[in-house]
Specification:
This protein is of the alpha/beta class. It contains 20 helices and 35 strands. Helix 19 links the parallel strand 32 and strand 33. Helix 2 packs parallel to helix 4.
Amino acid sequence: MRCLITHRVEKLSEEDSWELFKRRAFSRGGVLETAKFAAMGRKMVERCGGLPLAIKALEGLLHSKKSEQEWLRIQDSATWDSNDDVLPSLRLSYDNLPHSSLKKCFAYCSILPKDSEIWKDEMVCIWMALGFLLPPKGSNKLMEDIGSEYFNILLWNCLLQDGERNYEGGIYSYKMHDLVHDLALDLSKHHSVTVKADHELNDISKAIYVRVDEGISNIKPPILRRNFEKVQVLYAESRIVRDLVPYPRHLIGLVLKHSYEGELPNSLSNLKYLKYLDISRCYNMNKLPDYIARLYNLQTLSVQSATQLPRNICNLINLRHILVFDSYYNDVESSDMFSGIERLSCLQTLPHFVVSRDHQCVIGQLGSFKNLQGTLRLFALGDVENMEEASKTSLHTKSNIEHLKLVWKKNEDVMGKKEYNHEDVMEGLQPHANLKELTVENFTGKKFATWITIMTNLEFITFRNCKRCEEFPQLGHLPKLRKIFIKGMDNVKVISSHLCGSQGGISGELNENGAEETVATMYPSLTHLYLRNSPKLEEWVDPAMDTSGEDPNNVLAFPKLEVLDIKRCSKLRRIPGSCYPLMKTLHIRDLDSSKLLESLSKKACGLTYLQLQNISGGVGCSSSSSMNCIMGELLENNSVSLKTLSVGKLQGLTYLTLGVGLKSLLVIDLPDLNTINVIKDLSIWGCPNYEVFAQSVSSAIECLTLGGFSEDLDEFPWPLSFSFPNVIELTVWGWEKLKWIVDEEQPDDYLSSIFPSLRELHIHWFQGVKSLPISLAKLPFLERLSIVKCENMESLPNFHDNLQFLWIGGCPIIKERYRKGSGPEWSKIQHIKQIDGLD
């Protein structure tokens, strides 16, 4: 009996439906919008009933049809009048897929749970293992390329859709709409089964794709053998793999998930047809057993960490992809892993390679892998002899490598000749111009390779712990560079930028008189700039034009910068740019002077997040209180946009005039601060004199955090002369020396007199406190309480009935005494509606 599933979908009007349809159906590559095509299109759009998914599927389908006859065939299809539960346009989209193997790829997706994330590379590797991606005879096309084309066709036809995006806006996973999933289930109802605890196993005897969540451990082996012997792909909880694996004789793909302690069962060694093994979701699994290296048909091996990879992995001569979910690297355990790697002639994805002459891991071995793709991390590059050896990698021919990471050994003793060796080696590791991301770590040369400046497709570059480097490469002309991360460049004093020939952004704009003038743009696409731990860096100078000597006013720097993050660059006083119209986040800490901050206060005018810490007094303001002058201008220029402000150790700051848009304020160790204006969310950290500035705004505050006070204090500094009448959420942080949260001599209503409206209280790190004060239990409106890292706390007061939620974490004595259902003191708190952390 078919299960009826209902989906609530917003419907479009007739005109909006047509606009949605023709946007893609008649786009470039499709037919022209003639009267005949429009008439047929409108007729079919009407049949979609205003459902956006149905219309998108139809437009994707018809975009690929180039003649009136093909459109008529779709229009007159009997599928429109079918009575099944699948939308006709979705069924037509599937029926018209160009390859039977592509239809199999789509149907396979039915084994995935509804609304699950779909990872493109993972899906393509499984399709490949199942034999769906075989290239035509005589074709040099890779199976992975065919799989990528298939995936994109499914996306175009709305049989797959974009899923989650990363913080930069890029798509990293995909989804299948529930209605499309219903179609996939209908197509593979006899071949794709998910086994639940109460599932009747007789229903799965024909299944070739099976997902088992739980509930098969008590089933007798003959029944398991009969029902699982035809299974080709198995998704299973790792803890029940021992019960299942012996029976699918022709298993091609195995995906395990959740915790698994110990080694995989020896029965896996019999899976001689296995091509796809995924344990990347098994977080506690040990190193894979050695027999894995005898599964010679294996094409894809996906693991959580490199430490799980088996010894002798290079025996797997058909291996194409080694996927490591966690990129953490341990050179001690991994240095000999790829000894004999030249045998993996089909390899395309390699997580890392550690150069080691002792283990015959020579970097030139990578030269034979023409199809390496994705991310490549090269470690221990100090063992590479010279440029000639480095160039044997032929990285410049590997057009599918998008992220290259070059790592020398940390703290390597480099003197004289070795220093220049590092420079030559980097020069010999020139990648293909398609490279999008470059990371360089522990490089000990004085200058970087010249090829960096011609990587015009670079989007992200990182230099970390290049401590002897004295020159920063010219990057301002790179058109796609979006993010720069610099950390630990100890010897760089000045970063300069200039245009390199015809590269860079040069455009004509009209000045205020209407005349055209040339404007050069440096770092035209940069959105994120991070400068860390560069103690000698003094300035990032304005571009000096080296072609025609234009006025520096005609140079535009960082026009798209959104995030500027500067830490521990104590001497830095200037960066380029006359204005940062798109900057949203500014984070600066540990400067010897406020000159940089003073400059930025005039240029940033749309900030939403501002964090400033440990900046010495300002220069150049007429007022004697120069930090007040700088902060005043900065806050005034961002008074509407700024939502979050964090300030700490700003020398000479005595007052803050907060803008109307501010939602949250964190104050850290500002001993001179005496005045702030109205704020609802206030965090005070390390300011024992906070009463001076907090009293004037106490009635406006609704959310308050107090903590970080000197550990020399004997008592928690509760306010003495005023209350917070409207605070509904309070977080307090203690320290080990304190014996009481509230002094014993205070009356029972002490806390309620300070916080009469409090509803939510979070208590952290009162490690010396043994009991909560009675005044806490007397808070009349308290509903939620959490207690964290109070390791010596022994007892809780008798709470009133208003308390609805209690959470305990890192309090071992409390946990033992108040353990849910069995602790000797459980009865005192069992009336609380929800209790977490006491199981």
